[in-house]
Design brief:
The complex is a heterodimer. By secondary structure, chain A is mostly helical. Chain A has 8 helices and no strands. Helix content of chain A is 72%, strand content 0%. By secondary structure, chain B is of the alpha/beta class. Chain B folds into 2 domains: 72 residues, no CATH class; 173 residues, Rossmann fold (3-Layer(aba) Sandwich). Chain B has a 6-stranded parallel β-sheet, with helices on both faces. Chain B starts with 7 loop residues before the first helix and ends with a helix. The chains are: A mainly alpha, B alpha/beta. At the A-B interface, helix 2, helix 3, helix 5 and helix 8 of A face helix 1, helix 3, helix 4, strand 3 and helix 5 of B.
Amino acid sequence: MWAPVHGWSLLGYVAASVAAWVALFYILHRLPLRHKRILIAACTFLAGLFYTLEFFLPAHSRWLFFWGKHENPLSPLVGPLGDAVSVIYGFTIALGIISLASVHGKAIARRRSGWHNSVAFFAALVSMIVFGLWQSYVPDDPHRATWIFRASTVHRIYDVLFDGMYQPLGATVFSVLAFYIASAAYRAFRVRSGEAALMMAAAVVMMLSQVPVGQWLTHTLHGPWANLRVEVVANWLLTTLSSSALTGVGLGIAVGGLAMALRIWLGLERGSFFEAGGPK
Amino acid sequence: MKTEHANWFETLLWFVVSAIIVLAILTARRGRTLYIRPIPGLAAIDEAVGRATEMGRPMLFTFGLAGIDIVSMQALAVLSHIARIAARLGNRLIVPLADVPLYTLTEEVMREAWAAEGKQDAFRSDDIRFLSDQQFAYAAGVIGLLNREQVASAFYFGYFYAESLLLAESGQQVGAIQVAGTPATTQIPFFIVASDYTIIGDEYYAASAYLSREPTLLGSLVGQDIGKGILIFLIVLGTIFALLHGFFPRALPHNWLADLLGGAS
């Protein structure tokens, strides 16, 4: 929407933006709680109004947008507004780090049980920040030397931290899911009621349909009986019974979400942030 | 930037359903008595908080990976209710988070809950913790908390992905009474098998109305039920037209309703 700026102009824009944000945060901080709530309600209404109008007004209309190219004037603002939200989210990263540092710092200072895990947290935090930023600013060139290490060494250290440690740790937690599914399935399949029996029968059909031996069991069924083959029954369960039930659940969720959104947008919601006098 | 826009029918439908919801809210505010059916999962919240207090063990509430949106706003309303009871009974409520902006809102809601019960001094800001915005790092952190703190009650309200079963199974292993609610339809089965109570579908958005019995919120429930009725009527009408079009292609060469709504015939 706006042409990019460079050099001193960019610096000026950044400085002006930072100054505006500092002033805004100062004013917000000084405002009494009652006024803060009114401000939150006003901002929520304006933001909701913008996105509602942008979505429901057509992209092109000679009658509604009689000037220029007859295009929806709000659509070009969607991108910059999304960027502004990302910037606000960016501000909050520091809050997350402060929260983590506070909890783990206290654990180390008071020598709480497992305090050595907090030391590992600080070591991981610092090394990922340092090598993450370092490798992103230095091209992976084996002949190029940086401040302490060669550029390729910085990249290798980052790879060890990210690909060699962080990703396997994530994969390990994910793979625990396989064992948890088994224990959850064991509990669910204990037939204690009619519903549990139905659930177990459906699960057995689904599992058999996924393995060759299951499909082999009913492969001799032909003609109209072919509809009773394990894979056909499993597909019917999945695409007819299950998906229609899920569509019904989805319908309820969508209308419930709309009602919740309307309550927040129009200031009809009750509880924290929504009432001028606070929650009852 | 190219954005999506509604067609005339979507606009009309949104306007009609929204108007009905707002009218129902306004009617309820005038004092009309409204009935809400019992929802066992929500009724169990008070029992779960009381049980944790009796056992002298803390509780845990998680939003999953939800950021600031409608899902987390509803979860915040539930959290506010649980926090008020926890403050009243003098129990701890641990809230690990995966989203930093939500962390600030959560802290505010918790602080208000303790203040509303006149126990500002007992409020522990350390119990609200940002863990990580990475799915499995967050899951590992919550599992660690469930085990280390030996929580007696765990509440899962928000948006969940694959971590749902990891969390709920870990809660089972420490013997916590668990109440879960999510609009993520793919995760509902995992919560059903691993939690004691699961709130399904639109029951999730009925939570704040059910817990507070606030006329405004109860009115919106009535409005959304009428809105659902309209959508079901349209689905039935669409099915009839599709069947007629299929059985009598000569008499009904076009699916009139699908043509009208701009969909495929």
